[in-house]
């Protein structure tokens, strides 16, 4: 493989590694949900979990 192609691949891999490191850092942070988000989560959990085929057809027909 030509040296230029290897160098490009190496630089791309370094960039990917840096981006993954940033993503890992973000995922490790402890974030608190806002009051709005907590209310939305409560509503979503209270919703019916399954919908019949007939209900779907009524909604989108």
Give a quick summary of the entry.
This protein has 61 residues and is an all-alpha fold.
Verbal overview:
The protein has about 60 residues and is mostly helical. It is built from 3 helices and no strands. The longest helix is centred in the first third of the chain and has 26 residues, at about 5-30. The mean pLDDT is about 90.
Chart the SSEs and their pairings:
Layout: H1 3-28, H2 35-46, H3 53-60
Feature tags:
61 residues, mainly alpha, 3 helices, 75% helix
Q: Got a strand count?
A: 0
What percentage of amino acids are in beta strands? under 5%
Shape assignment: elongated
Which residues form runs of ≥5 with pLDDT under 50? none
What percent of residues adopt helix (DSSP H or I)?
over 70%
């Amino acid at each position: 493989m030509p040296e230029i192609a290897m160098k490009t691949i190496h630089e791309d891999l370094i960039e990917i590694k840096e981006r993954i490191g940033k993503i890992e850092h973000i995922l490790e942070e402890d974030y608190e949900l806002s009051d709005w988000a907590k209310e939305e989560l409560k509503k979503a959990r209270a919703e019916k979990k399954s919908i019949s085929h007939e209900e779907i057809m009524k909604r989108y027909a």
